[in-house]
Amino acid sequence: MMKTPLCLVTCLLASSAAFAQNADIFGHLLPAQKHTRVFGQEIAYYDMGTAKADEPVLVLLHGYGSQADVDFGPSLPLLEKQYRVIALDQIGAGQSAKPLIAYRVQTYVEFLAEFLRTQGITHFDLLGESLGGWTAAAYAQQSLTSGSTLPKPSRLILEDAAGFSAPETGFSPSAGIHLSVSTVGEVVTGLRAVFYNKSLITEDVARRRFITKLAANDGLVTSTFSSNPAVRSEALGEKASSITIPTLVIWGAQDTTVPIAMGRAYAKTIPQAKLVTIDESGHVPSLEQPQRFVKAVEDFLAGK
């Protein structure tokens, strides 16, 4: 029997280890994602940390045209120290399946509900960023409706959430940030739209984001969502007043993508909501200011 050269074995092991790891856009390593099937479609997700006795799981939903390790990558290692954290690549995003359907908020709501059922998760807090926040708010509102069979979250966290329709918010449900992936330069344009501190957008960061965006292959998904007329009717507005669980509305103080007026509208309409702003942060505090973001989340979940 011919022996395999030691150097080849070493190279193969190193290659396997590399493929078993993921990284955020700053290059910090993350564990390998897990995979499950929801409505027959593959869903990729991170499952990190351990829930203490009787404590809920913290479920995270990323934003439009993004994925879990982009929006939450720097915050995940901090959150897992205190909680069991599950961060999904939502249907149509990241490494999850991308069926050819007309995506809308209700699509994400129903996939979230089925994911929770397939994983047997009944005791959880729900956190969503941007479109993920819109989905989280819509999910909470529906789950708390009389007669609903959806698994109900204990608490809700809305991070720079889209989806509140009111004149004072100055935001259209069909509005989107620059999501082109045709060049690295256009990726930089997109990152500059969501970051406050532009110096964080280095050449390496832009390259990593370009790679993840190309690998996601989600251009058709974002196009179908932004052009779907049904999305306009899904904005919450006064329906958010039926969200009766403790809610944290957390916002980047310098968010120019979804204006702080929307955060104030959410906080004013949801009866048990508290608004916290994160200074020196644009649209994604969990990415740009992970320490401050996680501190605000921990304080809220600890009842402070």
Unreliable spans: 1-20
How much of the residues is beta strand, in percent? Answer: 15-25%
The tally of domains stands at: 1
Q: What's the order of the H and E elements? A: HEEEEEHHEHEHEHHHEHEHH
What is the average per-residue confidence, as pLDDT, rounded to a whole number?
90
Q: End-to-end distance, in Å?
A: 66 Å
**Helix fraction by DSSP (H/I, runs of at least 4):** 25-40%
Number of distinct helices? 11
Give the name of the CATH superfamily: Alpha/Beta hydrolase fold, catalytic domain
Short description:
The protein is an alpha/beta fold and 304 residues long. The protein has a single domain, classed as Alpha/Beta hydrolase fold, catalytic domain (Rossmann fold, 3-Layer(aba) Sandwich).
Structure write-up:
The protein has a single domain, classed as 3-Layer(aba) Sandwich (Rossmann fold). The longest helix is centred in the N-terminal third of the chain and has 14 residues, at 6-19. It has 304 residues and is α/β, with parallel strands linked by helices. Strands 3-4-6-5-7-8-9-10 form an eight-stranded mixed β-sheet, sandwiched between helices. A two-stranded antiparallel ribbon has the order 1-2. β7 (124-129), α5 (131-143) and β8 form a beta-alpha-beta unit. The chain contains eleven helices and ten strands. α6 (184-194) crosses α7 (203-216).
